[in-house]
Amino acid sequence: MLRVIEADITTLALDAIVNAANETLLGGGGVDGAVHRAAGPKLLEACKAIGGCPTGQARITNGFDLPSKWVIHTVGPRWHGGDSGEPELLESCYDSALELAIDNRVRTVAFPGISTGIYGYPKQAAAKIAVSVMRRYENKFEEIVICCFGTEDKVIYEKTLETD
Ligand code: AR6
After folding, report:
1. Ligand 1: distance of its center to the CA of 76 in Å?
2. Which CATH number, 3.60.150.10, 3.40.220.10, 2.60.40.10, 3.40.720.10, labels domain 2-163?
3. What residues are labeled active site?
4. Tens digit of pLDDT for each residue in 55-111?
Protein backbone atom coordinates (compact mmCIF):
# COMPACT_ATOMS: atom_id res chain seq x y z
CA MET A 1 0.00 0.00 0.00
CA LEU A 2 1.14 3.55 -0.74
CA ARG A 3 0.17 6.26 1.74
CA VAL A 4 0.77 10.01 1.64
CA ILE A 5 1.23 11.85 4.93
CA GLU A 6 2.45 15.24 6.06
CA ALA A 7 5.05 14.86 8.82
CA ASP A 8 8.61 15.29 9.98
CA ILE A 9 10.07 11.96 8.85
CA THR A 10 12.27 11.74 11.95
CA THR A 11 9.17 11.29 14.14
CA LEU A 12 7.93 8.16 12.34
CA ALA A 13 8.21 4.75 14.00
CA LEU A 14 8.61 2.38 11.04
CA ASP A 15 11.02 -0.35 10.04
CA ALA A 16 12.98 2.21 7.99
CA ILE A 17 13.05 5.84 6.92
CA VAL A 18 14.93 7.06 3.87
CA ASN A 19 17.35 9.97 4.12
CA ALA A 20 18.19 12.35 1.26
CA ALA A 21 21.96 12.39 1.79
CA ASN A 22 24.98 13.59 -0.19
CA GLU A 23 27.89 11.50 -1.49
CA THR A 24 29.96 11.97 1.68
CA LEU A 25 27.16 10.58 3.90
CA LEU A 26 28.51 12.91 6.57
CA GLY A 27 25.35 14.96 7.05
CA GLY A 28 24.13 18.30 5.75
CA GLY A 29 21.03 20.48 5.78
CA GLY A 30 17.38 19.65 5.04
CA VAL A 31 16.13 16.22 5.97
CA ASP A 32 19.72 14.94 6.31
CA GLY A 33 20.43 17.45 9.08
CA ALA A 34 17.18 16.55 10.84
CA VAL A 35 17.91 12.80 10.61
CA HIS A 36 21.42 13.21 12.06
CA ARG A 37 20.16 15.43 14.88
CA ALA A 38 17.41 13.00 15.83
CA ALA A 39 19.51 9.82 15.44
CA GLY A 40 22.39 11.15 17.53
CA PRO A 41 26.18 11.05 17.05
CA LYS A 42 26.39 7.28 16.51
CA LEU A 43 24.78 7.77 13.11
CA LEU A 44 27.70 9.90 11.96
CA GLU A 45 30.13 7.22 13.16
CA ALA A 46 28.23 4.56 11.21
CA CYS A 47 28.19 6.76 8.11
CA LYS A 48 31.93 7.46 8.40
CA ALA A 49 32.57 3.71 8.46
CA ILE A 50 30.65 3.29 5.19
CA GLY A 51 32.89 5.85 3.46
CA GLY A 52 30.43 7.54 1.09
CA CYS A 53 27.84 6.61 -1.51
CA PRO A 54 27.66 7.46 -5.23
CA THR A 55 24.69 9.41 -6.58
CA GLY A 56 21.80 7.09 -7.43
CA GLN A 57 22.79 4.42 -4.90
CA ALA A 58 21.76 3.67 -1.31
CA ARG A 59 23.33 2.48 1.94
CA ILE A 60 21.76 1.33 5.20
CA THR A 61 22.57 2.08 8.84
CA ASN A 62 20.92 1.56 12.18
CA GLY A 63 18.44 4.28 13.21
CA PHE A 64 20.11 4.70 16.64
CA ASP A 65 18.02 7.21 18.65
CA LEU A 66 15.32 7.48 15.97
CA PRO A 67 11.99 5.74 16.48
CA SER A 68 12.60 3.84 13.22
CA LYS A 69 14.90 0.82 13.20
CA TRP A 70 16.88 1.60 10.05
CA VAL A 71 17.94 4.59 8.00
CA ILE A 72 18.40 4.04 4.29
CA HIS A 73 20.59 6.81 2.92
CA THR A 74 20.28 7.58 -0.74
CA VAL A 75 22.01 10.29 -2.75
CA GLY A 76 19.77 12.07 -5.21
CA PRO A 77 21.00 13.99 -8.26
CA ARG A 78 21.44 17.75 -8.24
CA TRP A 79 19.08 19.30 -10.80
CA HIS A 80 21.07 20.71 -13.74
CA GLY A 81 18.16 21.22 -16.14
CA GLY A 82 17.22 17.59 -16.74
CA ASP A 83 19.63 16.59 -19.52
CA SER A 84 22.38 15.29 -17.24
CA GLY A 85 20.81 11.96 -16.39
CA GLU A 86 18.79 13.36 -13.48
CA PRO A 87 15.60 11.30 -14.09
CA GLU A 88 17.52 8.01 -14.36
CA LEU A 89 19.56 8.80 -11.25
CA LEU A 90 16.47 9.74 -9.26
CA GLU A 91 14.71 6.54 -10.36
CA SER A 92 17.79 4.60 -9.32
CA CYS A 93 17.63 6.17 -5.83
CA TYR A 94 14.12 4.88 -5.23
CA ASP A 95 14.97 1.52 -6.79
CA SER A 96 18.17 1.06 -4.75
CA ALA A 97 16.55 2.16 -1.50
CA LEU A 98 13.64 -0.27 -1.95
CA GLU A 99 15.95 -3.16 -2.94
CA LEU A 100 18.05 -2.52 0.16
CA ALA A 101 14.87 -2.41 2.24
CA ILE A 102 13.81 -5.83 0.90
CA ASP A 103 17.30 -7.25 1.59
CA ASN A 104 16.88 -6.17 5.22
CA ARG A 105 13.34 -7.52 5.61
CA VAL A 106 11.86 -4.05 5.93
CA ARG A 107 8.04 -4.11 5.74
CA THR A 108 7.25 -0.43 6.40
CA VAL A 109 9.31 2.40 4.93
CA ALA A 110 8.92 6.17 4.49
CA PHE A 111 10.48 8.41 1.85
CA PRO A 112 10.98 12.17 1.72
CA GLY A 113 11.00 13.83 -1.71
CA ILE A 114 14.55 12.93 -2.66
CA SER A 115 16.39 15.79 -4.48
CA THR A 116 13.39 18.18 -4.29
CA GLY A 117 14.83 20.51 -1.63
CA ILE A 118 18.40 21.78 -1.70
CA TYR A 119 19.15 19.78 -4.88
CA GLY A 120 16.39 21.62 -6.77
CA TYR A 121 14.66 18.78 -8.66
CA PRO A 122 11.22 20.02 -9.87
CA LYS A 123 8.68 18.60 -7.44
CA GLN A 124 6.04 17.37 -9.89
CA ALA A 125 8.53 15.57 -12.13
CA ALA A 126 10.18 14.02 -9.08
CA ALA A 127 6.81 12.86 -7.71
CA LYS A 128 5.99 11.06 -10.98
CA ILE A 129 9.26 9.13 -10.80
CA ALA A 130 8.86 8.34 -7.10
CA VAL A 131 5.31 7.05 -7.54
CA SER A 132 6.13 4.96 -10.62
CA VAL A 133 8.94 3.13 -8.79
CA MET A 134 6.91 2.73 -5.59
CA ARG A 135 4.02 1.21 -7.54
CA ARG A 136 6.37 -1.46 -8.88
CA TYR A 137 7.34 -2.42 -5.32
CA GLU A 138 4.19 -1.75 -3.30
CA ASN A 139 3.06 -5.36 -2.95
CA LYS A 140 6.46 -6.35 -1.56
CA PHE A 141 5.80 -4.11 1.46
CA GLU A 142 3.12 -3.70 4.09
CA GLU A 143 3.33 0.04 3.57
CA ILE A 144 5.38 2.57 1.61
CA VAL A 145 4.83 6.00 3.14
CA ILE A 146 5.36 9.18 1.13
CA CYS A 147 6.30 11.65 3.85
CA CYS A 148 5.63 15.23 2.76
CA PHE A 149 7.10 18.22 4.49
CA GLY A 150 4.33 20.75 3.91
CA THR A 151 0.85 20.78 2.40
CA GLU A 152 2.04 21.80 -1.07
CA ASP A 153 4.04 18.59 -1.43
CA LYS A 154 1.15 16.51 -0.10
CA VAL A 155 -1.19 17.94 -2.77
CA ILE A 156 1.35 17.18 -5.50
CA TYR A 157 1.69 13.54 -4.41
CA GLU A 158 -2.05 13.02 -3.95
CA LYS A 159 -2.69 14.31 -7.48
CA THR A 160 0.10 12.15 -8.87
CA LEU A 161 -1.36 9.06 -7.21
CA GLU A 162 -4.80 9.87 -8.64
CA THR A 163 -3.74 10.59 -12.19
CA ASP A 164 -0.66 8.49 -12.95
N1 AR6 B 1 10.95 15.35 7.17
C2 AR6 B 1 10.48 15.09 5.93
N3 AR6 B 1 10.86 15.78 4.84
C4 AR6 B 1 11.74 16.78 5.01
C5 AR6 B 1 12.29 17.11 6.27
C6 AR6 B 1 11.86 16.34 7.39
N7 AR6 B 1 12.31 16.56 8.61
N8 AR6 B 1 13.17 18.15 6.10
C9 AR6 B 1 13.15 18.46 4.78
N10 AR6 B 1 12.28 17.65 4.13
P11 AR6 B 1 16.47 18.14 1.11
P12 AR6 B 1 17.81 17.11 -1.33
C13 AR6 B 1 11.94 17.58 2.71
O14 AR6 B 1 16.93 19.51 0.84
O15 AR6 B 1 17.06 18.09 -2.16
C16 AR6 B 1 21.41 18.04 2.36
O17 AR6 B 1 22.29 19.06 2.73
C18 AR6 B 1 12.14 18.82 1.87
O19 AR6 B 1 11.04 19.70 2.01
O20 AR6 B 1 16.54 17.63 2.51
O21 AR6 B 1 17.89 15.68 -1.76
C22 AR6 B 1 22.14 16.75 1.99
O23 AR6 B 1 23.27 16.54 2.79
C24 AR6 B 1 12.21 18.22 0.48
O25 AR6 B 1 10.90 17.96 -0.01
O26 AR6 B 1 17.29 17.04 0.21
C27 AR6 B 1 22.51 17.02 0.55
O28 AR6 B 1 23.67 17.82 0.47
C29 AR6 B 1 12.90 16.87 0.72
O30 AR6 B 1 12.80 16.63 2.11
C31 AR6 B 1 21.32 17.79 0.03
O32 AR6 B 1 20.74 18.44 1.18
C33 AR6 B 1 14.35 16.82 0.29
O34 AR6 B 1 14.97 18.04 0.58
C35 AR6 B 1 20.29 16.90 -0.59
O36 AR6 B 1 19.28 17.68 -1.17
Report:
1. 10
2. 3.40.220.10
3. 32
4. 999 999 999 999 999 999 999 999 999 999 999 999 999 999 999 999 999 999 999
